[in-house]
């Protein structure tokens, strides 16, 4: 049995947490940590040699880091608040905002599908967004 510190392997541990694990598990964790460090070095060293048009993901992984748990929680809360605000609208406004803003349909397409004029749809979306801002 080997004793490992979870703080060395998981960034969300802020204090030392020692646990006993089988030798095989400890070896796999150490090998994975070495592999990740080597990969990060390769990405950092070689990022200037790749074109942005290459689309192999190296620039993306070198420039952006994984969101922290707090950022993920904030995104989830924002998403929930937006959903609540959208659900609080009358059915027609919610349907029109969903179609135009979320699904990307044009105002003309929505107006034709509902059999109303475009100006009605535009005004409905405008009023719905104002209501959502008040609720949000």
Provide the descriptors you would attach to this structure in a database record.
136 residues, mainly alpha, two-stranded antiparallel ribbon, elongated
Strand order of the largest sheet: 1-2
The number of helical elements comes to 7
- Our measurement of the CA-to-CA distance between the termini, rounded to an integer number of angstroms, reads 53 Å
Helical residue percent band: 55-70%
The whole-angstrom Rg is 25 Å
Low-confidence stretches: none
Total beta strands? 2
Mean pLDDT: 85
Write the element-wise H/E pattern from the N-terminal end onward: EHEHHHHHH
Bulk shape:
elongated
The main pleated sheet reads as: 2 strands, antiparallel
Proportion of beta-strand residues: 5-15%
Could you say which structural class the secondary elements and strand pairing correspond to?
mainly alpha
General description of the model:
It contains 7 helices and 2 strands. By secondary structure, it is mainly α. The protein has a two-stranded antiparallel sheet. The mean pLDDT is 85.
In short:
The protein is built from 7 helices and 2 strands, in the order E-H-E-H-H-H-H-H-H. It is mainly alpha-helical and 136 residues long. Strands 1-2 form a two-stranded antiparallel ribbon.
């Amino acid at each position: 049995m080997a004793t490992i510190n979870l703080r060395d392997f998981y960034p969300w541990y802020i204090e030392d947490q020692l646990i006993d694990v089988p030798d095989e598990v400890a070896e796999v964790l150490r090998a994975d940590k070495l592999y990740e460090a080597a990969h990060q070095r390769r990405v950092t060293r070689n990022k200037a040699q790749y074109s942005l048009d290459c689309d192999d993901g190296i620039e993306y992984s070198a420039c952006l880091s994984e969101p922290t748990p707090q950022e993920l929680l904030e995104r989830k809360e924002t998403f929930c608040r937006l959903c609540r605000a959208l659900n609080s609208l009358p059915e027609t406004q919610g349907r029109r905002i969903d179609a135009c803003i979320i699904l990307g349909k044009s105002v003309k397409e929505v107006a034709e599908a509902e059999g109303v004029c475009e100006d009605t749809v535009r005004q409905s979306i405008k009023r719905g967004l104002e209501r959502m801002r008040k609720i949000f």
